[in-house]
Amino acid sequence: MKKYMVLVLLLCAGMAWGQDRQAVIKVLTTQQDAWNRGDIDGFMAGYWKSDSLVFVGKTAPAYGWQTTLDHYKKSYPDKATMGKLAFTLIKVDVLDKTNAFVLGAWHLSRDAGKGDVGGYFTLWFKKIDGVWMIVCDHTS
Questions:
Q1: What is the distance between the alpha carbons of residues 108 and 94, in angstroms, rounded to a whole number?
Q2: How far apart are CA 104 and CA 29, in angstroms?
Q3: What total number of domains does the chain contain?
Q4: 137: nearest Cα among 111, 104, 90, 94
Q5: Sheet of 131-139: strands edge to edge?
Q6: 84 neighbors 109 (Cβ within 8 angstroms)
Q7: How far is the C-alpha of 125 from the C-alpha of 109, rounded, in Å?
Q8: Whole-angstrom distance, CA of residue 44 vs CA of residue 47
Q9: H/E element holding 72?
Q10: What is the pLDDT of residues 85-108, one digit of tens each?
C-alpha cells in the first residue's frame, strides 16, 4: 500500500510541475505575441515589476523593471526596429515549486534596411503570488 501512495504522490507532483512548465511557456508565448504587435509594455508584463529585476545584456547588468522597460523602448523605438520575434525554447526546467530555468534562442526578422538579429537567453523564473515571473534575464 505504501508503494502505491508514493507512486500517487509522485504522479501528482509530476502533473503539477507539468502545469508549471506550461505556465512558464505561456509567459514566453504571451511576450512573443505582444512583441509582434509592437507592444513593449505588454512584453514587459512577463517581468517581475520590481527594482530587484536583473537584466544582463551585452554591456552590463541593469537593475529594475523600469530600467529594463526604458532600455527596450530606447533600443526598439518603432515596429520596424522591433521586427518579428521568434523564440526557440531549448530547455524549460521547473526546479521546484517556485523556481524555473529557461534556456532559449531569440530571432528578430526585420526588413533588409534593419537586418535580422538574434542570440541566446537564459531566464530565471520565480512563482510570485501564484504567478510565474522573470526575475533575471541574461540575453546576448
A1: 27
A2: 13
A3: 1
A4: 104
A5: 61-63, 54-56, 131-139, 117-128, 99-109, 84-94
A6: yes
A7: 26
A8: 5
A9: helix 65-75
A10: 999 999 999 999 999 999 999 999
State the pLDDT confidence band at 59, using cuts at 50, 70 and 90: confident
pLDDT top residue among 15 and 132: 132
DSSP structure class, residue 49 = -
Dihedral angle sign, alpha carbons of residues 110, 117, 86, 98: negative
State the Cα–Cα distance between residues 86 and 33, nearest whole angstrom: 9
Give the DSSP H or E segment for 119.
Answer: strand 117-128
Contact 101, 123 (CB under 8 A): yes
C-alpha closest to that of 97 among 16, 11, 9: 16
CATH number of the domain that residue 17 is part of: 3.10.450.50
CA distances for 90 relative to 23, 87, 132, angstroms: 16, 9, 19
Long-range pairs, 86-93, Cβ under 8 A, ≥24 = 86/32, 87/28, 87/31, 87/32, 89/25, 89/28, 92/21, 92/24, 92/25
Q: Which domain holds residue 42?
A: 2-139
